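A further point concerns the way the authors explain their paired sequence and structure data. For illustration, here is how one protein appears when written out as sequence plus structure tokens:
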Amino acid sequence: MLMSADEAPLEWSTPLGAVIALAAGGVALGVAGLAVSTEPAGRVLVCVAALGLLLTAASALRQRPRLAVDKEGGGIVVNRLRGRHRYARSEIERARLVRYPRLGRRVPMLEIDIRTDDGTERLLIFGRWDLGTNPEDVFDALAVHRLVGRGQ
């Protein structure tokens, strides 16, 4: 289905409901680990698992939106743990869909090759968790905005 640039989404991130569920699970697991467990080793393991869930939720929340189209600058904006990075259209070498094997099936991942003006190269890889939708749909939206690279 072809869409116009006005209809195409402009940003993608991990669904907020999933982030909230992770945080709630981490809190519940932490409370259960501290309140219920009578075995010290079990308590440590449950609390480490709770910390892992909370850190994953904090990471996903910090990086919202994970990928966005920069309408003013004509490029993309990527949020990472260390902050926001803007890449101009001229810095995008190519964007493509690659299918990686995961749990017995091949799942699509969006790969974006970046080459900055100072010669630095980056490979950005986004999956369904990062984007909150199918990477194929994001690729289509980037193509509508002419952000899939030179000559594509």
The first strand starts at residue 11 and ends at 12. The first helix runs from residue 16 to 35.
